[in-house]
Design a protein that fits this description.
Blueprint: H1 2-18, E1 21-25, E2 31-35, E3 47-48, E4 51-58, E5 61-66, E6 71-79, E7 82-90, E8 96-103, E9 110-122, E10 128-133, E11 144-152, E12 155-167, E13 173-183
Antiparallel strand pairs: 1-2, 3-6, 4-5, 4-13, 6-7, 7-8, 8-9, 9-10, 9-11, 10-12, 11-12, 12-13
Length: about 180
């Protein structure tokens, strides 16, 4: 059941990420990429960051998403009468994507257990390193996301997280840490 919920959350995050950009036809008939910004008056509770960064550290690598050029969203979803919130991001080159979620409602000064997470890295255009939330994460007291700020003035969200993720094909769990400081319009 947990795997099913995680898969549904990951698919939803992927759909939201994919909708962050669309192809548009220019006046000369060629296709161009155009960004789509979320309407912050939308009552869905889903917001694209307009400024700020999301940084993830795993293995000996650091991945930084910059909202000025990459797509970063704060997501609120309802699956099987359960509420989840989380962060999702994809870089402009579409070579790194990330999603993390927690059960419950987002609010300032909130620390919750991480319920799902995925990191995909494609360095050479062919081979993808895939990390998913480790089964060991649920038993680890440091498996948490901390929202220091949420929807306060121009701040969309600010905080940190720590969890355990396993690389596809291995059983060994990697410590994954991150921080985020994102603003909305």
């Amino acid at each position: 059941m947990k795997l099913l919920k995680f898969t549904l959350i990951a698919l939803l995050f992927s759909a939201v990420i994919a909708s962050c950009q669309k192809d548009a036809q220019s006046t000369d008939g060629s296709l161009t990429k155009t960004g789509i910004k979320a309407d912050t008056s939308d009552n869905s509770g889903n917001f694209f960051a307009s400024k700020g960064t999301l940084t993830i550290e795993v293995d000996d690598s650091t991945y930084t998403f910059d909202a000025a050029k990459d797509s970063i969203a704060f997501i609120n979803v309802n699956i099987d009468s359960n509420k989840y919130y989380g962060l999702t991001a994809i870089n402009k080159a579409h070579t790194v994507s990330f999603g993390i979620s927690s059960l419950g409602f987002a609010s300032p000064d909130l620390k919750n257990t991480i319920a799902g997470g995925q990191l995909l890295v494609t360095a050479d255009g062919k081979n993808t390193r895939q990390y998913a939330l480790s089964t060991e994460a649920g038993n680890n007291p440091s498996n948490a996301i901390y929202l220091e700020q949420y929807m306060q003035d121009s701040v969309l969200t600010k905080g940190t997280f720590t969890t355990l993720m396993s690389k596809k094909g291995t059983q060994a769990a990697q410590v994954v840490t991150g921080s985020f400081n994102l603003q909305r319009k």
